[in-house]
Amino acid sequence: MSAGTGHHARKRFGQHFLTDTALIDDIVRAIDPRPGQPLVEIGPGLGALTLPVLARCAHLTVVELDRDLAARLRKRGDVEVVEADVLTVDFGALAERLGGPLRVIGNLPYNISSPILFHLLPWADRVEDQHFMLQKEVVDRMAATPGHKAYGRLSVMLQWRYHIESLLDVPPEAFDPPPRVDSAVVRMVPWPQPVALDLGRFEQMVQVAFSQRRKLLRHSLGRWLDEQGFAGSFDLQRRAEEVPVAEYVALAQVLPAA
């Protein structure tokens, strides 16, 4: 039970409640919420971020799956509650209703953080920025550069669409109950003019490329490109982790139509 709240953290929801007030202040300053902005918080929990953000912006929309926590938040007049699994929420429709672009924040459930990031990807053009608390390992992967062991599918997919910056490292003792991993806060700002491509094809291509990380790309991506009827040139005598994001994007642009 989180101290003084009467609410038990629910393992199936991946709940770890942020309790370090100094750290919360640092996060809110990094977000810099302002009145009138369409702010959306994913997984507000017991309100550790919600309340100090509300003190600055006066109104907030939250997405909360836990019905007990959602009921608590509904009692406030300054919070709109979307009681739903975040993976089912249409953020494009939400941005239109709130007069976007959205500013999205949250301490994301660590057990589904990557699916949430991929779920938000198609609506990046309806988002101003995103600030998330995540497992530090995930943030390291998001921000990794070519040649780094953390560089992978998540790095390529997200860096195509966002400028990614790791802001703060967060120790386990900042939470109740403490997670078994270190955490970090990341800022994601969509590129204003991203390279246009078929997102589904791009995702498939990147997944194939990193499916055999230790082998040269000719064993994985090369075979896939042959199957697609690709007649261009691409250096396949490299491992997937050696290829910059821009080269993956350029390749995706010239793929034959499916």
UniProtKB/TrEMBL annotation:
Gene3D superfamilies named among the record's database cross-references: Ribosomal RNA adenine dimethylase-like, domain 2, Vaccinia Virus protein VP39
Family: Belongs to the class I-like SAM-binding methyltransferase superfamily. rRNA adenine N(6)-methyltransferase family. RsmA subfamily.
Protein name as catalogued: Ribosomal RNA small subunit methyltransferase A
Gene Ontology, cellular component aspect: cytosol
Enzyme kind, highest EC tier: transferase
One GO MF term attached to the UniProt entry: 16S rRNA (adenine(1518)-N(6)/adenine(1519)-N(6))-dimethyltransferase activity
Task performed by this protein: Specifically dimethylates two adjacent adenosines (A1518 and A1519) in the loop of a conserved hairpin near the 3'-end of 16S rRNA in the 30S particle. May play a critical role in biogenesis of 30S subunits.
Broad class of where this protein is predominantly found: cytoplasm
Keyword tags: Cytoplasm, Methyltransferase, RNA-binding, rRNA processing, S-adenosyl-L-methionine, Transferase
EC number: 2.1.1.182
Keyword Ribonucleoprotein among record annotations: no
Residue numbers binding S-adenosyl-L-methionine: H16, L18, G43, E64, D85, N107
NCBIfam families assigned to the protein according to its UniProt record, in alphabetical order: ksgA
PANTHER family: DIMETHYLADENOSINE TRANSFERASE, DIMETHYLADENOSINE TRANSFERASE-RELATED
Ranges for domain Ribosomal RNA adenine methylase transferase N-terminal: 23-192
HAMAP family: 16SrRNA_methyltr_A
